[in-house]
Amino acid sequence: MRKKKNKFEILENIKIEEMVAEGKCLARHNNMVIFVGGVAPGDVVDLRVTRKKKSFMEAVPVAFREYSELRVEPFCQHFGVCGGCKWQHISYETQLHYKQKQVKDNLERIGKVTLPEFDPILGSEKTKYYRNKLEYTFSGNGWLTDEQIKSGEEFDRNALGFHIPGRFDKILDIEHCYLQPAPSNAVRLEVRDYARKHGLDFYNAVKQEGFLRNLIIRTANTGEVMVILQVKYDDQEAILGIMKHLEETFPEITSLQYVVNPKGNETYHDLDVVCYKGLPYIHEEMEGIKFRVGPKSFYQTNADQAYELYKKTRELAALTGNELVYDLYTGAGTIANFVARQSREVIGIEYVPSAIEDAKINSQINDITNTTFYAGDMKDILSDELIARHGRPDVVITDPPRAGMHQDVVEKLLQVHADRIVYVSCNPATQARDLELLSEKYEVTRVQPVDMFPQTHHVENIVLLTAK
Ligand SMILES: C[S@@+](CC[C@H](N)C(=O)[O-])C[C@H]1O[C@@H](n2cnc3c(N)ncnc32)[C@H](O)[C@@H]1O
Predict the structure, then answer these.
(1) Would the CATH topology of 10-66 be identical to that of 133-283?
(2) pTM of this prediction?
(3) 1 Cα: distance to centroid of ligand 1 (angstroms)
(4) How far, CA to CA in Å, does 205 sit from each of 84, 111, 171?
(5) 247 in the Ramachandran plot: left (φ > 0), alpha (ψ -120 to 50) or beta?
(6) From start to end of 197-288, where are the E strands?
(7) Whether residue 82 lies in the annotated active site
(8) What's the CATH number for 133-283?
(9) Nearest to 131 by CA among 278, 255, 300
(10) Nearest atom (ligand 1) to Cα of 306
(11) CA of 352 to the centre of ligand 1 (A)
């Protein structure tokens, strides 16, 4: 049998050059590009090739010969195994440098438009404990690290934590996570230990069996806390046992809920969520504007940086109070409501009907009366009829998902020809693609990267487009 050529070969003494897409680093060997995770620019390493294609290879480090000066000591005991905080081995300053570069490279390479000088990336004051939502998964067959296996010790395999990257069935039990503030860690550990002690059945994702499925914790900037337990079947005695224990142990939980989900997947947007204690929602707040966040609502997961992002978006929109603003991909109407007091009228459009319900509630509870929201696919809702009804927007704010805007939407924006478009994106590659199309009638006048997710390679970017 012919051996697969060069797969798994070891490459020695390779210098890591720089950070590139998806948080990986780039190196070269015999004119071949290699993508490597878990290293830093400046490291010198031995690599094991894991994938070989005609024009590139993928590899993992097996030995370090020299460590880069850009490195810092990782702070988390789960570094290298857990899929979160993959950049914690490089300093925050270096992370910001590479995020800014990622935006610049994408806009120059894909966008092919004339660009102004970029504004320096807005870094996050908090680089740990910045998330307001985490979702932990139960597993009766928790992942053991190589060290744990080698130690020969007995470990309780009932785990509550995060997926091993790329593995739907492997869960890493988490002792301490640095992403969400208190009481997130304490609640997770308490639920895990209670369930272990009472012999409750942790989920098995392969067989799709087991009682305990997942635990969602939301910690709002108002101090309110929501906990949602998701279970496979309706065992009231077991559910109420956990609920009562959490109620007694954590009086700070203001919204304690559970959902019975017998389905094959963990989504529960189509299921009833039962509120055991408190209100069925919590509130986030920005400049005195309250946002109601229910168990099915989307809210930006880094609330402090969301505020910075929205302030910058509003600043670039240059609102004076007289503008008609279209907020495309409005989610729960957060940007729409945030800019409403500085606008004449705001139209928000979003695909998910329940998010639009939240958007309307968010206007009502803040006495905002100049917003109108529509649910549906952007390419259908942003129609000639809608524009005739509300008028040509002075300003468009658009914040599409990672895939960017549908070509029909871009064409509609060219036809509508608002004075300014503020384009917020979590994916500079698709943003760059859309900018090239929009350059027919717009020039890019400001570029402002924002870091919403420290310790990861993700970057948000705001671009101001001004009509030519
Ligand atoms: C990046 S989020 C922006 C949310 C919001 N602007 C915020 O700051 O919270 C993108 C939003 O686009 C919505 N969306 C995705 N595809 C859509 C489509 N084809 N039409 C309308 N909305 C869509 C998603 O449901 C999501 O709420």
Answers:
(1) yes
(2) 0.92
(3) 51
(4) 21, 42, 10
(5) alpha
(6) 212-219, 225-231, 255-260, 273-278, 282-286
(7) no
(8) 2.40.50.1070
(9) 300
(10) 8
(11) 8
Q: Determine whether the shortest distance from the Cβ of 330 to ligand 1 is under 6 A.
A: yes
350 is in an annotated binding site: yes
The CATH fold assigned to 95-126+302-467 is Rossmann fold (3.40.50)
* Ligand 1 centroid distance, CA of 341 (Å): 22
Q: Report which protein residue has its CA nearest ligand 1's atom 19.
A: 377
Whether 351 is in the pocket of ligand 1, judged by its Cβ within 6 Å, is yes
Could you give the CA distance from residue 119 to residue 128 in angstroms, rounded to a whole number? 24
Q: What is the pLDDT along the chain (468 residues), one digit of tens a residue?
A: 444 555 578 999 999 998 887 778 999 998 899 999 889 999 999 999 999 888 899 999 999 999 999 999 999 999 988 989 999 999 999 999 999 999 999 999 998 889 999 999 999 999 999 999 999 999 999 998 888 888 888 888 999 999 998 888 899 999 999 999 999 999 999 999 999 999 999 999 999 999 999 999 999 999 999 999 999 999 999 999 999 999 999 999 999 999 999 999 999 999 999 999 999 999 999 999 999 999 998 899 999 999 999 999 999 999 999 999 999 999 999 999 999 999 999 999 999 898 999 999 999 999 999 999 999 999 999 999 999 999 999 999 999 999 999 999 999 999 999 999 999 999 999 999 999 999 999 999 999 999 999 999 999 999 999 999
The yes/no answer to whether this complex scores an ipTM above 0.85 is: yes
Give exposure, 342-381, as e/b (b: 16+ Cβ within 10 Å).
bbebbbbbbebeebbbbbbbbbeebebeebbbbbbebeeb
**Domain spans, the chain:** 10-66, 95-126+302-467, 133-283
Q: Is 408 in the pocket of ligand 1 (CB under 6 A)?
A: no
Superfamily of chain region 10-66: Nucleic acid-binding proteins (2.40.50.140)
Question: Nearest residue CA, atom 27 of ligand 1?
Answer: 331
CB of 352 shorter than 6 A to ligand 1: yes
Q: Rounded distance, CA 380 to CA 386, Å?
A: 10
Q: State whether the beta carbon of 300 lies less than 6 angstroms from ligand 1.
A: yes
Structure tokens at 200: 């409750």
Quick check: helix, strand or coil at residue 413? helix
329 in a known ligand binding site: yes
Q: How much distance in Å is there from the Cα of 238 to the middle of ligand 1? A: 37
CB of 375 within 6 A of ligand 1: the answer is: no
Q: Whose CA is nearest to atom 12 of ligand 1?
A: 329
